[in-house]
Design goal:
With about 130 residues, the protein is mainly α. The chain is built from seven helices and no strands. Helix 1 packs across helix 5, helix 2 packs antiparallel against helix 3 and helix 4 packs across helix 5. The relative contact order is 0.13.
Amino acid sequence: MKRRKIREMLLQITFQMDFQKKDFEKSALHFLLNQSLSQADKDFAETYLKNLIARRKEIDSEIEKKLKGWTLSRLSKMDLAILRLGTYEILFEENIPNKVSINEAVELAKKYSEEESKKFINGVLDAIARE
């Protein structure tokens, strides 16, 4: 399966993160492992998700540093989920070029968010990548 489809699946899960506090990781992994993915894709997605959840505070802190005049709570939940995925990749996935992570986040914004979100997300992730 293409990584873009896996990112879309991870976006759906990450979007739920702020709504479901109790047993989030357990239910997220259950959802993920019940998808029709190859074992390699499941392993990638599971590792990605576990690391993203474990480093959420660090990821959110990096995002917040780049928000000029904004707070995380003011962002739409979808934009925040997309920023979390992109930031996670930029900071912790060394085998994914930053340019690819930013582009993929912008593509997710085009598909799942408001028209102006893609520029905003691009700007925040670019600032994180340049740091």
